[in-house]
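Entry 14. Structure prediction run on the chain below.
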Amino acid sequence: MIKRTLAVALASATAVTLAGCGGGSSSGKNSADGTKAGSSAPAKSGKSSAAAAPTAVSTKNPSRDKNADLVIWADATSAPYIKQLATQFGKANGVKVAVQISSDVRGQYGTAFKAGQAPDVIVGAHDWLGELVTNGSVAPVQLPAKVASGFNPKAIAATKYNNQTYAVPYGVENLALVRNTKLAPNAPKTLDELVANGKKLVAGKKATTVLSNQVGKTGNPYNGYPWLSACGGGIFGTKSNGQYDPNKLIVDSAGSVKGASSWAAMGKQHALSTNIDDKNADTLFASGKTAYEITGPWSIPAFKKAGIKYAIDPLPSIAGCGAMKPFLGVQMFYVSSKAKNATVAQTFVTSFLTTKSAQETLFKVGQRPPALTAAYDAVAKTDPDVAKWAAAGKGGQLMPNIPAMNSVWGPLGQAEADIVSGKSAPKARMTAAQKEIAANIAKG
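Output returned:
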């Protein structure tokens, strides 16, 4: 069905473009400059009976494969599974596909786009969306209502910017409390309970660390956000329509300061530490040196490999506040506004990657619960962790996808690190962070 649809779409696109050009000139210019994404004729008709196998190129500076009809950039973790799917798509539709590994998809895509060497499809997080749309570097995708209705509503919401759909989701992710069931048989209901048991384990030399949670010397506001949300704080307020408002910063609100005060208290108890970052957080848990880690599904393969018996629980509550709620993140596929063959790229993303089979394959990328409900239901039958991640994310809000979010990470992260380490008092430091973020947003 996809092959026939693609062939018809390619033929139609070719006919439209030739008619617009008087039937005698090359249609490649529209495809190259992206001015008519979705309607420009591709270099190939898609009717070839054989397609070359996709290539995987690992390089710090990936360069677009000029011989490929469809070029996809992804990180090293997701590339093998995307290559598997791309191979199927290419062989079925007679197109050559190149799957290339990028060490910094977002940054390298921006550079390549400006140079006219962008891939057709990129894979990344939903919080990139606002920047990509503002820069004009991604094209809207045509996702039929019937197809969209089969997805997790939050995942679909993450693909929209100004009510326009710009991507196809494949995985939903959020933080949870992962617990070593040997060291901690019962899930802590409160953060105080967690800290008390963690300190007891350290005192008894059964562990070396109360809690593994990424902070680092420059902070990690993604992992630190649940403290703010528990106390009614956060980053941005919202508009009347529920969308985040970049003009309503709440970093220094009473709720955010109260959450930051919990950072400080845990820092004093050595339950949070700037010595724990993305380099050692998983290792501490996988080696049995801590009973608890706040992390996402991407960490589970390492824990399984280490033979750690674990449980996945919702984040605990903070005394005087409420339950810690994580951000919800969505991984998805974007189509470049300068796609060489927009019809091929759009078909791959909207028709092939929206199938149950494809979404089940993509579940293997970090074990993120599938965005497609049918795929979620299928993997949940064989993997009990899937439902537990979803339960831990219940009540969580989508991470902001507005461009202003780029101004937040650095200042808020450093504020967190300074508060945890005891270098700065919560209220003064959060006020300073808000001023810095506001200044960054104003600069654009």
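The domain at 176-325+408-443 is CATH 3.40.190.10 (D-Maltodextrin-Binding Protein; domain 2).
Filed with the rest of this week's runs.
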